[in-house]
Design brief:
The complex is a heterotrimer of chains A (about 160), B (about 425) and C (about 525). Chain B is built from 19 helices and eleven strands. Chain B is α/β, with parallel strands linked by helices and about 425 residues long. In chain B, a hairpin with an 8-residue loop joins strand 8 (about 275-280) and strand 9. Chain B is globular. The two termini of chain B are about 45 Å apart. Chain C is of the alpha+beta class. Chain C has helices at about 20-25, 75-90, 110-115, 150-160, 190-195, 290-300, 320-330, 365-375, 380-390, 410-415, 480-485, 515-520, and strands spanning about 5, 10, 50, 60, 70-75, 135, 140, 165-170, 175-180, 200-205, 215-220, 230-235, 240-245, 275-280, 285-290, 310-315, 340, 395-400, 420-425, 440-445, 455, 460-465. Classes of the chains: A alpha+beta (about 160), B alpha/beta (about 425), C alpha+beta (about 525).
Chain lengths: ~160, ~425, ~525
Amino acid sequence: MFQLSPEGIKEIKNELGRYEARESAIIPSLYIAQKENKGWISPEVITALSELMEIPASKINEVFKFYTMFNQKPVGKHHVQVCTNISCALEGGRELARHICRELKTKKDEVTADGRFSISNVECLGSCGTAPMMQVNDRYYENLTPESAMNILRGMK
Amino acid sequence: MEVKLLTEFYHLEEFRSLEGYKKNGGYLELNKALKMQPQQIIDEVKASGLRGRGGAGFPTGMKWGFLPKNGEPRYLLCNADEGEPGTFKDRMMMERAPHQLIEGMIISAFAIGSKKSYIYVRGEYDFPIECLRVAVKEAYAAGYLGKNILNSGFDHDLDVYRGAGAYICGEETGMISSLEGLKGQPKLKPPFPAVQGYLRKPTIVNNVETLAAVKYIIRDGAAAYKKYGTEKSTGTKLFSLSGNVKKPGNYEVPLGYSLMNLITQEGGGIKAGRRLKAVIPGGSSAPVLTADEVAKATLDYECLSAMGTMLGSGAVIVIDDSQCMVDVLGVLTHFYHHESCGQCTPCREGTGWLNKIVHSILEGRGRLQDIDLLLKVADNMKGRTICALSDAAALPVLSFVQKFRDEFEFYVREGRSKVKGTTYAEMHH
Amino acid sequence: MPKCTINGKEIEVKDGATIMEAFRQVGEPIAHYCYHPGLSVAGVCRLCICEIEGNPRPQIACNTAVTPGMKVSNKTEKVKDGAKWILDFHLINHPLDCPICDQAGECGLQEQYMEFGKYDPEMAEKKVKKHKVVDLGPSVVLDSERCILCSRCVRFTDEVSKTHELGIFNRGDRSEIGTFEGKKLDNKYSLNTVDICPVGALTSRDFRFRQRVWFLKEGNTVCTGCSTGCNVKVYFNKEGLFRVKPVYNEQVNGHWMCDEGRDVYKFVNRDSRLLQGKKKSQGVWSEMSPGALALDAGNTIKSTPPAKLAVVVTGHASVEEYEDLLKTFQGTFKTANIFHWLNNQESFASFDGLLIRGDKNPNTQGLKKVLAKNKIQATWSELENLLKSDSIETLVVVGPENQAVYPDFAEKISKFAKVKNLVWLSSGGHNDFTTLPHYAWLIPMKTFVEKSGTFINHAGLEQKFQKVTTVVSEALTVSEVCRLFQGDKTLSPNPSRTATFVEASRSQDLVTLEDRKKNEFVFKRGPL
């Protein structure tokens, strides 16, 4: 059963009072809860938020399912997102994504057996001048080659 | 040739901090503006001919003029949900010069009489958000934000809001919905945001680059700003150059600059052994130009519009002759299908349909009539929805098929790419 | 009050009216799914596009205000072609499973296709797969593949019931209506979502697969579920009634009704009805035709001294019936012992803020008004005293149609069973009727859909309703029973074809009992 930490609850209560509309706290609160739930949002998370925030679960669920940065299933410790949109695609982004999957012996949108990585393709991340690129958790890695990307990933604990 | 108006000090690491920013002219224009009449600022912006740098190119001063003239509370929202594929200028601006944006925003807020503003940043921009949050804190501490700014009697609060991954939130009413804590679905217009926007209050939404430019219009005056650019496209603009070009990056050039020069001079040209095939001049939603057309194009609103495409966000995506246009279009249809918010039927269903047809062709299941069907479906998605995403999804399809029809026909007949000679499976699996 | 021209017809509309409202006002057909007059404007189906003179781009009628002199048309080639395509966009991922869909026959997609579509579909790709037969809640079932995401149901739960159970989850063509995991669409108004669903996505658990809608007739009446008096339409065929839906009445119920009210058809159908008159004489039951039984009971009533005669009446009959009842018992039989049977008195005044009221009678106000007019002031405690002191010889009970809302029904049977002669007018049967006294008359009565009359609702609003259909031919109305009590011979228990119900000025029913039997299935057929 998911439970928010006391700090998380405090942060969410703070967000609830921060904006003109209480609902504006939904996105920030989902971020807080996702961090506390190993990087993804389970139905229990929505229920907990709904009770804490006094906002109908259906409305929080609508927001959660609309935005791609909220993960609908478990992710690895290092969530790798490779841009495959146009500028990166022109410079080998799709090949990079395939290469990483092959090297880490996993499939797109799945978590590696050791739980360390999950790989997914992602739409444009605004890093088109430094294509191809990937985002690992919150950080951007740019001007990649298949080799340099793997070196970066292998260096992660 | 680059003209570094906004980006003059971007090479300085210190420009990110309040101290470094102030050392290089920071917050001088805020001081100046707070001593002006708000209407003077609006008039100056109007006179400068500044047009929205986010994509639509709507005259900024005119937009401000739509606000009701009463004292009703109003909001200024900075659109930093830079999502148009190929665009990465706002990201650089927020990372290198967060105070420049904040200063531009305070001046603009003073002009329109807004006491509260938000910078809505796309959620993926973790580092820019960090830069902005630090800068906002610094600005509050220095008295540039909060109560009675620089003893002018003007109060203003600014907050940074993090989006969560949705292209549609770059559409101003989609962004407003998102900021209100809803799905980022665009709102029906009328009412327009200037009349009823964020929480049904009058709201102005401007792009990062637009708001930052306001500082320089106040610094140099409208007349000086207008010296750059063409009659209808004044000033400088940041272009995000990407794709098959040697030196991709952000370049600030005067509007009206030659597209070919941007590619060959700033961008260093096409890689050795390759030739220019096509350019998408204004972000992925802009119709594609062939190499012949590129030679004639200048980077201003009127020229590109006359050529049937648009300046958009200023994202110039260069495609060389090693690329298969059917394959590239597949990337774009996939993107719009992924990003359609699902509200309006023609867009919700049409983006999926287009993507399926293009992928049928790519996977060797295409029929010749599918090529015309693509045109028909795309044509009927245009102008039929609440926002422009449907048009944005349709336009690339129309231009790719019309201008590179031979590649599509070859693909349908042979089941493989005319350019690469291989099937989709061979290319991508 | 701007004037505008809609498809060449000039009209004046109220200030701020939209083009959609102008089309509806002038009666010009205009395709639409997401627009609903009782909900906010969503503007998402895009089907209501029309061309405004001077505007190059077609606009949607639901979100465009009429301006003075505006000339609008939805008959231009541009609009027709556009609407066709927009309809196609609605249908490309629709399963087109009309033969097994409950909505067939009253489906917006079918109707609009025949009116505005009729194109050859070109979709050759695989359709999007979504959830089917989703258990949304106790009353509603969802088929997501049929859903066109008009968002009416979501807006209903957000804006009207304010219960917020529904949402649209995911983006683009992966969007689906639903509730949050584990939660149910469970509110007292949930079936309105089925009514406003323009397609077969939301269906009523009660009604689904029971009848094809084209085998049903419909007629308007007033809901008897509570004192609000929602205007409703009942759907029926010769097997009985199948469903109840609201009919718009701004003053009373707007566009909606409650789920409870939708069950009022159940006590009307034959399986819960009293079909034959029953008489208990010296403890032995025998069956009689209702008319003969009423005549027979009349003899006993007539022979009862007025002081020993009493009447108990509920708020379930019509104003006209109450008047006849008073005329008969106060006027002819000279008794003032007329008592108002109030059910669930504790919660009588309760109101949920939308439609549901605690007074579960359609005509409490009507009864009170008629009693007051006739200066009847007898209180229930007087009746209790009379019963206790065995002062009542003959008691006539005008019972409720809807026994379910009378929690004290069984208790009252045992209480009234103490009198010597008990005459009970009832549309429905009840197990405890077997315990009635040695001398009892159980007279089968008509229900509200089988008669015409007037109800006065909680706010004092008089609502006339017309007979919709006949379910039990020989059952009687209170007015008919009253005349039979007085021995009115024109109402023969064994009628010949010429023996008609008289007093045509009062009764609208001029057919003979024979005719009634033969024409049990006589309808006012509305458009399907």
